[in-house]
Design a protein that fits this description.
Blueprint lengths: L8 H18 L23 H8 L8 E2 L2 E5 L2 H10 L7 H10 L10 E5 L4 H16 L4 E2 L1
Parallel strand pairs: 1-4, 2-3
Helix pairs in contact: 3-4
Length: about 140
């Protein structure tokens, strides 16, 4: 991506699996966490396609205590491009964002574990909204990814 070449599906699989496994490891008791794992882990990734989200959903197969929830940040292409063009020194240029938008499969209603929020507002508004959603899910007692 740093070279301006969009990732293909085959570029993403190992990374998504490694991300899922690192998350499961973080939620497991170990010497690293003094056998007291955190109640929650927050993972941030694009998960552009439903099949990418499915890779993360597999985490629940190993434990009924794990809860997966996705927060889809919905924004118009116009707003997204404006934001990208304002970033200085970032490797993700507008052509890369366009390729991600072309690959994007917006979550469907059948994906019950996805909350869609509109992120046309300020960064601060979006942060508050997402934090509110995450905190409400974490307090329910199950582990969140």
């Amino acid at each position: 991506m740093r070279n301006g070449v969009p990732l293909a599906d085959e570029d993403r699989w190992d990374w998504l699996i490694a991300l899922r496994e690192a998350t499961l490891q973080a939620l497991s008791p170990s010497q690293r966490n003094n056998f007291h794992p955190p109640k929650s882990v927050i993972v941030s990734c694009s998960a552009l396609k439903e099949k990418y989200r499915e890779v993360m959903r597999i985490a629940v197969y190993g434990s009924s205590q794990i809860k997966i929830h996705f927060i889809y940040l919905k924004v118009s292409e116009v707003t997204l491009m404006q934001r990208v063009n304002l970033r200085e020194g970032h490797y993700m240029k507008s052509n890369m964002v366009r390729s991600q938008l072309q690959a994007l499969e917006e979550p469907q209603k059948s994906e019950w574990d996805v909350t869609t929020i509109n992120v046309e507002g300020s960064a601060e508004q979006v942060q508050r909204h997402v934090l509110s959603l995450v905190c409400s899910g974490i307090t329910k007692g199950s582990q969140s990814v």
